[in-house]
Amino acid sequence: MALAAVVLAANLVAPSPALAVTTHVYPATQDTYANASSPNTNYNSQRQLAVAGSPDRISYLTFAVTGLAEPILHAVLRMQTLDTSNAGSTDGGHVFLVGSSWSETTLTYATRPAPIGPSLAPIGRVKPDTVRDIDVTDAIRGAGVVSFGISSTQADGAYYHSREDNEAGPALLVYTGVPGTGDTVILAAGDIADCRSDRDEQTAEVLDGEVGVVAALGDTAYEKGAPEEYAACYAPTWGRHKARTRPAVGNHEYLTPNAAGYFGYFGAAAGPPDKGWYSYDLAGGQWHVVVLNGNCAQVGGCHAGSPQEQWLRADLAASPARCTVAYWHQPLFASGGRGNAAYRPLFQALYDAGVEVLLNGHNHQYERFAPQTPTGAADPHQGVRQFIIGTGGRSLQADFPAVAPNSEVRNGTVYGVLRLTLLPGEYRWRFVPVAGQTFNEVGADQCH
After folding, report:
1. Phi and psi of 91, rounded to 5°?
2. How far is residue 231 CA from its own chain's centroid?
3. Fewer CB within 10 Å, N side or C side of the chain?
């Protein structure tokens, strides 16, 4: 297949000119796999890519990146599984960088290139005849040749289309444009400032290096969101990003009557003090953002027909945006305990409107769920993907007493912020840990 660098074709999601994003698509120039059971055999004639363990099967791909006139915003490796019944796997593999001095016609397991650095991203569970986008932004520095390997420790192997399959073959998608407006990024975490800890200073330093809207997901100033706690604990750290913060109110804020410290500190950005819910738009109006108040008893309930639930349904119905993200403090689903069924009617309203993403805090840990229904059934087509990001600095909860259905990723030992990038028709996430800690959690998905 001849190399092509083209703007995203009609069968993919084309960014709007209003966002000044150009997407370049690079088909693989080389791809093959190696098999440990036949270490001296070349498998390039197989016209497929295999990834598995026991025996070890590793796929390799090369791309030639050209024609980038603007800064790189994002990059993804797009792979498609075969439509055969055995093509899916519980683990589609991990992507890593390798050197580019190999040939698809001669590579064997014995001569395979060594990994360069740690894994870039996990692919996760894959089904037959499914397209997966894997975030490889950190590997793309500009024009040039780049090669990846994909390996897995699971005997249940995954099988992907090779480059001989034309449009179904591997592709590297590189998004370029002019960064810095902050209109397409949400930086989210909750459970933040405590004068007895310096972890909120460390997460604030993460924000210092990132552009975007800051979504403070509640419990922003411990212990009770008092004015003096905002002044002494929150203002010196996350408070330096107050001008770009769109907060949600937590339960600790209401330990001060009527959450007066919270509403007094954030002002109009927090919504009406008697409600605490509001909405706004990002990405040139292509993304709608809804912020709710999870303190149901303080605002007339969260049940179906409550003032907040009725407002939510009306707000979602009035929005022309294709894609929507919502956030409030307390989660409906959680593996770390404290999931609360009181939020099911709000989740139902999100689900009925086709909302893509829900962000919560409250549990002092990180958790990501697969898209699901309000009753917790997996629903990859219409489901809402929930994140818990209670890693803003207060403290961490390392244990997950009962892993909830559809929970995909959990971590209770790393502080940091979720970077949610909002693109036309899709979103990308990356957990950005504080300096000195490591947690590789990235991914992408498309809007409904």
Report:
1. -145, 105
2. 32
3. N
Q: Where are the alpha helices (DSSP H) in 96-166?
A: none
**What CA–CA distance (Å, rounded) separates 167 from 169?**
5
Residues, the chain: 448
| Vertex 368 angle, CA 431 and 338, to 5° | 115
242 C-beta neighbours (distance < 10 Å), count: 17
**CA dist 247 → 19, 267, 385, 422 (Å):** 25, 10, 20, 18
Q: Which residue type does 382 have?
A: Q
Q: What angle do CA 432, 434, 440 make, to 5 degrees?
A: 40
CB 423 within 8 A of CB 184: yes
Identify the CA nearest to 78 among candidates 2, 165, 20.
Answer: 165
Q: What are phi and psi of 349, to 5 degrees?
A: -65, -40
Q: Tell the residue number behind the tokens 């090669």, with chain if given.
A: 147
Report helix, strand or coil for 287: strand
Give the tens place of pLDDT for each residue, 53-104. 999 999 999 999 999 988 787 788 999 999 999 999 999 999 999 999 999 9
Which residues on neighbouring strands pair with residue 151, listed in sequence order?
94
Tens of pLDDT, residue by residue over 178-210, are 554 578 899 999 999 999 999 999 999 999 988
d(C-alpha 435, C-alpha 135), whole Å: 21
Sign of CA dihedral 378, 379, 380, 385: negative
Give the Cα separation of 288 and 18 in Å (integer): 16
Look at the pTM and tell me if it is higher than 0.70. no
Q: What is the DSSP letter of 53?
A: T
Terminal alpha carbon distance of the chain: 32
Element containing residue 260 per DSSP (H, E): helix 260-266
CA distances from 283 to 20, 189, 210, 371, 421 (A): 11, 20, 16, 22, 10
Compute the 3-state secondary structure of the chain and give helix, strand, coil in percent, each to the nearest 5.
Answer: 20, 35, 45
